[in-house]
Amino acid sequence: MGFQYFAGAACSALTARKDGPSLYEVCDPLLRRHHGGDQHLAKFYRTALGNPALRPLLRRTGLAELNDASRLERLREALIHARDDEAPDWAAIGQPVADLVDTIELSHPQPKPGEAPARPPEPAEIEAVIRRCGSHLLRAFGDNGFIPTYAAFNLIGDADMGGRELLMALTGLNSRGYKNSTLLFSLARVFIARSPARALINPPWKGIAEPMWEPMQIRHRSAYYDAFFTEALLGFIETGLASPDQAATSRRAIAEMVEFCLVTSREEVRAQDGSAVHVVTALAPLPHPRFSRFFAQIKQDLGFGVYVPDCDTTACAFSAATQAGSDDPILEQPLLDFYAGYQVRGGVNEPLVTVPLNDNIDYEGGVATWIDNLGGERPFGNDLDPTLNLDILEVSFRNLVRWKIIETPQRLDTVHRIIGFQKRLVLSGAFSLPRSHIYYLPELYCAYFGRCYAAFIALPIAAQQAIDPDGAFGLIRTRVLAYVQDELITGEMNVFDAALALIALGHLGAPVASFTPALHCIVSQTGEGGRRGPFKAYEWNKMKTPTRILVGGPEVTSAFVLMGLALARRAMTRGMGT
After folding, report:
1. Residue 551 in 3-state DSSP?
2. Both 303 and 451 in a single domain?
3. Is 197 a domain residue?
């Protein structure tokens, strides 16, 4: 899509015929200049939806059903209750918005069949891309003092968020500010999705992972990202393709990122028994996330004023530090003891998951996402993501001896129950459904299972048998490989899709011949990123509330490509498969 597409879409949005009251005709009388009640709701509206950039696009987006005066009044009354009530009834407030959300038709990408290249790229071409990606990461670190990642808002919302899911969020989240932003973003997406503005705000794309094309993106730093970039640079060193200077620079960057994870982003919380535990928060206190002053305020306005630690960032930070050879005492904590307090046990603590957007899966044995801070706050309620639970298994395998997992029945039971959760998910086929995942794509689940599987098979045979006596990992491997080989790489892919496919195929020991479509995609698209890097930014992870928020960046794509190509190159060099 080029200038002509966006110019045409903008023209259509600006000249569209309005069929009913617009978002601003509904909300301006209530929120634009109001100063009573809950101040955040009106402030959020003015900042996120009533701003001068968005108004021209949405002022001609009307909903015909709101010509019905009674329906319009019902919607406005709900907004007034959200604004003025001290203890709002969020289910009642959300219902008229949920009814409108259910009129939206959105679907997940369905790539067309891809072409099967006759032969893979030459080894020299693959190595050149690896070097280019490694250089990109090191240059970014040198320019910024960290490797940046970006967040962007797609106001069309997530295809899995219907009216039912909106009500789940409004009743399951704890922060009023976060409820406010979820309510208003959900209302706005109806006007967007049912107007010509849709083509401008949500243009079509090739492949599965969504490109991050939005002109306004929030650059920031997080321990979760630093842990990932640490693994990528470790992989770059391991390839032997880094120059001596690049290898030395990589080691310095790794040391600084591990310190950022384990020291700067460390936060003390309480375990269920009241004991102190140190975990890792994704967003350390200011100024460490490196937001601009403007975006730091927007973060507050969006309802992210209080940000709490999470189980995934903690697991990934511990794993990266372990791989980097850190001897920080924090790593001596057996995280499984802490995670057991957040593990769902059927009939005992199922209400632990208060925002069950993926209630099509069985939560039994899974570990929830968000960790209460010392003040007992958990603004986002809690949810449960399958990929997060793979990360918990992976860090547990890397610290199997240190944490005495096999020797400690309670810890081994926690691992067994997470594996059982994963086995049921995969054997049901739900792992391949986007709805089953809160923060990630199914294809990323496959890549991260490969990462987890690699840590598992690196263990001694006796340890593998103690951890997985029923052979669940073998069953999951078979199903995941089938999905990647029969669905992912047979369709049109973008670079990010291809990198994830290679990570899964490489870790899971697929035949090297199956690498060809993904290798060809990456090598042929090298340079697509222009001045920002070898490749464009794509969706790495996302949030479904308060709206669809994508996280990624050109540096993220380079890191995934580097890791995928490194695995493919290693397998090809060893002559694995047929």
Report:
1. strand
2. yes
3. yes
